[in-house]
Design brief:
mainly alpha; 2 domains
Length: 111
């Protein structure tokens, strides 16, 4: 009986690895109603060694970005400090399969 119920569900949530806060965020993301309902984007860090998070719809690998944690002067600071924000300034990246100029493809290959 439970198997048939699970098979007909629109959403199955495995809570075995979720904290109460994560479970609440997941439920709000799926079932939020009212005036403030809209697109919600959550950014989280994870380890491929432990697997991609189950709740992830899109995963972007950004390991090529410079990590301010490994810069000695920035290590004691947080992402809220201006020095860290300046070190993480936007960079232009393109992919050869998206088209773009030869210079764009060379820049993308440099990463």
């Amino acid at each position: 009986m439970i198997g048939r119920l699970r098979d007909s569900a629109d959403l199955v949530v495995d809570t075995s690895m979720l904290s109460p806060h994560q479970f609440k965020q997941l439920l709000l993301g799926h079932f939020a109603l009212g005036a403030d309902a809209g697109m919600r984007i959550s950014v989280l860090s994870f380890s491929y060694r432990r697997g991609v998070p189950r709740e992830a719809d899109l995963v972007f690998d950004v390991r090529f970005l410079k990590n301010p944690h490994y810069v000695p002067a920035l290590k004691p600071l947080s992402g809220l400090d201006a020095e860290v924000a300046r070190s993480s300034r936007p960079i232009r990246i393109t992919c050869p399969s998206w088209g773009g100029s030869r210079a764009d493809r060379a820049a993308a290959a440099a990463f």
